[in-house]
Amino acid sequence: MAVSVTDRFLRYVVIDTQSDASSRTQPSTEKQKNLGRLLVEELIAIGVTDAHLDEHGYVYATIPANTTKNDVPVICFCAHMDTAPDYSGTGVKPQIVRNYQGGDIRLPGDAAQVIRVADHPVLKDLIGHDIVTSDGTTLLGADDKAGIAEIMAAAEFLMKNPDIKHGAIRILFTTDEEIGRGVDKVDLQKLGADFGYTMDGETAGTIEDETFSADAVEIAIKGVAIHPGFAYGKMENAVRIAGAIVDRLPKDMAPETTKGRDGFIHPTGISGVMEKANVSFIIRDFTEEGLKTKEALLEKIARDVMADYPGSSYTFTVKEQYRNMKVVLDKHPEIVEYAVEAIRRAGMNPVRGSIRGGTDGSRLSFMGLPCANIFAGGHAFHSPLEFVSSQDMEKAVATIVELAKLWEERA
């Protein structure tokens, strides 16, 4: 008997897989491999004989082609195993609100945590669904264990139904996506796919072919340190300089004041002492030009602040993180067109959208594996209010199956 996508999901979320940006190893946390090992065991159990976990924590596997056609492209379905460091992922206690009938959902482990319809109007579309949440004291992990469960359920379905014809399908489960290193060590030659789909989106029916472009900026400040009792006219406090830079950021260019296609400048960390300080930023925009404009603005702010501190100096370092995958996907329109058709065949109205963020697919697209992003059904990511509908996960499984069929039909 096949294991339901919800049962798989419940099994995966209780395994702590949070990544750690301060770690320099790959994966950043060894515990991510605990889920990887389980997934390999389950894949082998359903007949996927080449499933394995590599030294970097990635899971690779192949559903063999069962068609007589020779020109069917090799598709990759990808999801990430880690959960975000933003909120605890230890000791996840999932609950299911069965046959949800509307209204706010109060989480049992923390009475202050309430999933409010006013904040999450998508709940109005989930009447009658079975909704999975955490108990409010941790993340749930739908980002992206919902995607993993959906790929695994689809793999089992295809392996048990050989009458459904399809080409070779590669499965890739990555580590460290939440800290921007998800595909650093992926071996694309070993993967051997022509293109891919990440199962890492939100609302059922959505297909996303566009992400932010993203850079990180580090401003390192060297101040003038001296005993505070003798500081008059001499001290230039690096912490104060760092604070002045942050204070001058445009208020209308922050994540909390932007939406849609607006980009932002977001300070993510500040540390230091009198002598030296560091400020970390992430810069986001849908266009390369917008990204560079925001970086130029940030550097001008830093330069203007530093003008008031002639004895101090700074460095301004930009690190590329990922780029808008639409640049690549526009050259391969059939990848998105087939996904739209698969979503329609799975019984939904397809909605094309843009992600105010990135996915493994952003990087993979520019590494040579064009990747669109398909819904996984989760909501309120990176928070204790995270939730996902069982029925929406089932729709994602159906979408994967329909995609496999479509590429074989039209080869």
Secondary-structure blueprint:
Layout lengths: L4 H9 L18 H14 L6 E2 L5 E5 L11 E6 L14 E3 L7 E2 L7 E2 L15 E3 L8 H19 L8 E6 L13 H4 L3 E7 L4 E6 L1 E10 L15 H10 L16 E9 L3 E10 L2 H19 L6 E10 L3 H4 L3 H13 L5 E5 L4 H8 L3 E5 L2 E2 L7 E3 H20 L2
Parallel strand pairs: 3-8, 3-9, 9-16, 10-15
Antiparallel strand pairs: 1-2, 2-8, 4-7, 5-6, 7-18, 10-16, 11-13, 11-14, 12-13, 17-18
Characterize the structure shown.
By secondary structure, the chain is an alpha+beta fold. The chain folds into 2 domains: 293 residues, Aminopeptidase (3-Layer(aba) Sandwich), CATH 3.40.630.10; 110 residues, Alpha-Beta Plaits, CATH 3.30.70.360. An 8-stranded mixed sheet has the order 1-2-8-3-9-16-10-15, sandwiched between helices. Strand 12 and strand 13 form a beta hairpin. It is globular. The two termini are 32 Å apart. The model has no long low-confidence stretch (mean pLDDT 97). Belongs to the peptidase M20B family.
What is the CATH architecture descriptor of the largest domain? 3-Layer(aba) Sandwich
> How big is the Rg?
23 Å
Number of beta strands:
18
Q: Termini separation (Å)?
A: 32 Å
CATH class of the largest domain: Alpha Beta
The description of the largest β-sheet is:
8 strands, mixed
Poorly predicted runs: none
Provide the β-strand percentage band: 15-25%
